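Project standup — Tuesday

K.O.: blocked on the structure for the chain from last sprint. Re-posting the sequence here as requested.
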Amino acid sequence: GIEIGKIIAQSQNIARDLTNEPANNLTPEKLDQRVRGLIKDFGLAKTVKYECLSRIEMVKMGMGALISVAQGSVNEPKFIILRFKNSKSPLVCMIGKTVTFDSGGISLKAGEGMSRMKGDMSGGSAVIGTTLALARAGVKLNLLTIVPAVENLPSGSASRPGDIVRAMNGKTIEIISTDSEGRMTLADSIIFAERAGAKIIVDIATLTGGCQVAFGDVTAAVMGNDQRLMNSLLSVADKVGERMWQMPLFEEYEEKMKSDVADLRNSGGRDASPITAGIFLKSFVTKSRWLHIDIAGKEIVDKEGFYQPKGATGFGVRTLFEFFQGLGE
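H.V.: unblocked you, prediction finished:
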C-alpha cells in the first residue's frame, strides 16, 4: 500500500509539473520528448509501447478536426499514443485534452488570465501521469492512452469562424468558435480509439468555461453514455476525494449543435456549454462505452490546500488510477 501510494503521488506530481511548465518550454514537440524521457527514466521502455504521429501522418489519416486547431501555430502537432498491455482483457482507453497553449485562436480570449492557458493541456498531463502509475504498479490491464498535443494560436494560417472541416470519420463540422478547440482534438481521438478496438473510452479535458462557472475549482462535470460506468467513476472519485458530479445529455440539447451547412457545429453558445460540448463529443462515439470528464477550473488553484500546493493540481490522476485499476483483471 505504501509503494502504491508513493507511485500515485509521484505520478500526480508529474502531472502538476507538466501543467506548471511555461508553454514555450512545453510545445507539442517538447512534450513528446518529455514523455519519452519519463518512460525511459522509470525503466518502462519494454512495458509501455510509445508511438507519435506527425502532422503528415494525421493528415493522411483524415484528422481534419484536430489539424484545424493546430494550423495557426508554427509548432507542429503531435499525436502521442501509449500502449500498455499485460492482460487479455478488452481494450480500454484514456484520452487527455492537450492544448499546450490556448489563445482561443482567431476567436481570441481576453488578455486577463490568458497566462493560465498553459494549463489547457492538464487533461493530457493527467492521463500521462496515470498511465505511468498503472504501468509502474503492474496493474493487469489492456490500455491505450491518447495525447493529442496541439497549440492554438491566431495567424494567417489559422482556422476561422465559419470554416468547415472534416473529422476522421467523414463528419463535417462548422467552426463557430476557434476557442471551442479541445473538442475538435478529442473528436478525432475518440474515432481513433474506436477504430483501435477500445470498448471503454474515458476522456478528461479542461473543456468549457461553463464548467468553471458552475463548479468553480472544486468539482468536475461528468457525462457519458453508460450509467453503470458512470456510477463506478463517481464512486471512485468520492473514495479518493476528487469531487465529480454527473450532468445530463438529454436529446433536447442536440438541437443546439445542429448546423445549416455541416453535420454539426463545434459550439452551441454559452447556455449549457458543458452539456453541449458533451453532446458534440457523444456524436463521435458509435459503439464504445464512454465517459467525459470536464475539469475546467480544477487544473490550477490560487491557494494551497491540505495536500495541494498553489498552482497545478494534477486533478484526475488518483480517480483515473483507481477507476482503470478496477477495469483490469
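K.O.: great, moving the ticket to review. The radius of gyration is 18 Å. The CA atoms of residues 164 and 228 lie 36 Å apart.
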